[in-house]
Amino acid sequence: MLELRDVTFAYNRNQPPAVANVSLTIRRGEFVAIAGRNGSGKTTITKLMMSLLKPTHGQIFRDDEDTKSCTPADMARYIGYVFQNPDRQIFRDTVRQEISYGPEMLGFSSEKISEVTEQAMKLTGVADLADRYPRTLTRSQKQRVAIASALSMTPDFLILDEPTSGQDADTHERFMALLKDFHSSGKTIILVTHDMDCLVRYAERVIVMDKGIKLFDGSVTDCFADRRRLHEAGLREPATVSVSNGLAPQGISLTTDVASLAEQILAKRGGLNG
Ligand SMILES: Nc1ncnc2c1ncn2[C@@H]1O[C@H](COP(=O)(O)OP(=O)(O)OP(=O)(O)O)[C@@H](O)[C@H]1O
């Protein structure tokens, strides 16, 4: 469990806080999305969770333990962090070295290092790139290496900040399928995203940030049921919501789920045709 209790963080004293009085709890096994317009505090929250930043006020707990004296290296045992830009976290000469670096720093035995490295490479589909120089890989391959590097430290939580930005539809699909597999295997996923269609498809819960404040925390369906709130937070309506809202006069109820929307439309087909 990861808990923020009344957390405030300011980058400097002359500016309003980037995160203000935020309380939230993320339980093991959840798939949570953090959404909100640019500059709303999403990345700052994830950096606070990772102890890359420390609260100006408030506390952060991991399984009831206050993390105030934890370093990012301590937190990396529990939380894998995948940055927005994979170039920011890739430094070694080969993909294998890159992925084994974290477990080495954590003091794993050499057998364990090789076991977790091979497993992470296999899971993320980069085993055939093991001896390549990471800087020459495509962005999507680098993303996979970044995730493998996080996974090799065998964390329970995985935080991904806009991992699919700039990827083509096919790569995006494969990447999200990978995340879904991790989630099914018991990992807790915290995904920062601007992609509302992706959010409604994969996340179970949404935290919406606005000007550093937590504007909403709840189910995906409840989040998109309130158009005023979406507007306030600068969130785009996902396609399923727009279509179901548009067909409301025909008796279609609001849904974020493609399958449920298709089912409703098929069930009403006679009426819609008429
Ligand atoms: N290193 C920094 N120094 C000073 N201010 C910063 C720094 N990083 C972020 N900020 C400010 O803190 C606020 C929150 O930024 P943050 O990056 O957390 O937002 P975000 O929601 O993740 O944005 P984006 O969607 O653009 O990534 C913004 O006003 C931003 O300008």
Explained architecture:
The protein has 274 residues and is an alpha/beta fold. The protein folds into 2 domains: 2-235, P-loop containing nucleotide triphosphate hydrolases (Rossmann fold); 238-274, no CATH class. It is built from 12 helices and 10 strands. The chain has helices at 42-49, 72-76, 95-105, 110-124, 139-151, 169-184, 196-202, 220-225, 227-233, 239-246, 258-267, 269-273, and strands spanning 2-9, 19-26, 31-35, 57-62, 65-66, 79-82, 157-161, 188-192, 205-210, 213-219. The strands form 2 sheets. The chain has a 6-stranded mixed sheet, sandwiched between helices. A 4-stranded antiparallel sheet has the order 2-1-4-5, with helices on one face. Helix 3 (95-105) packs parallel to helix 5. The radius of gyration is 20 Å and the shape is globular. The termini are far apart. The model has no long low-confidence stretch (mean pLDDT 91). The structure holds adenosine-5'-triphosphate. Residues 11, 18, 36, 38-44 line the site of adenosine-5'-triphosphate.
Q: Can you list the ligands bound to this structure?
A: adenosine-5'-triphosphate
Order of the strands making up the biggest sheet: 6-7-8-3-9-10
| Class inferred from helices and paired strands | alpha/beta
| Rough outline | globular
Provide the CATH superfamily of the largest domain.
Answer: P-loop containing nucleotide triphosphate hydrolases
Mean pLDDT: 91
How many structural domains does the protein architecture include? 2
CATH architect. name of the largest domain = 3-Layer(aba) Sandwich
| Count of helical regions | 12
Q: How many distinct beta strands?
A: 10
How far the N terminus sits from the C terminus, by CA atoms, comes to 52 Å
Text of the CATH class of the largest domain: Alpha Beta
Helix content: 40-55%
Portion in beta strands: 15-25%
Report the C-alpha radius of gyration, rounded.
20 Å
Largest sheet: 6 strands, mixed
Order of helices and strands: EEEHEEHEHHHEHEHEEHHHHH
pLDDT < 50 stretches: none
**What is the CATH fold-level name of the largest domain?**
Rossmann fold
